């Protein structure tokens, strides 16, 4: 099952800051398509 959440909700759930999530994504620790999806509206 896939659940879509916005960054602030994810940050609260994981007890991380939005900046930490951004750092993980930019450093390649989280890979698009595996750990996260980008949805363009």
Helical content (DSSP H or I, runs of 4+)? 40-55%
Q: What's the number of structural domains?
A: 1
Tally of individual helices: 2
Mean model confidence by pLDDT: 81
Distance separating the two termini: 21 Å
Radius of gyration (Å): 10 Å
Number of extended strands: 0
Q: Secondary-structure element order, as H and E?
A: HH
Q: Catalogue the unreliable spans.
A: none
Give an account of the 3D structure:
The structure is a single chain. By secondary structure, this protein is mostly helical. It has one domain (about 1-40). The chain is about 45% helix and about 0% strand.
Sequence-ordered SSE layout with sheet pairings:
Layout lengths: L6 H8 L3 H10 L14
Keywords:
41 residues, 44% helix, mainly alpha, 2 helices
Give a brief outline of the structure.
The chain is an all-alpha fold. It has helices at 7-14, 18-27.
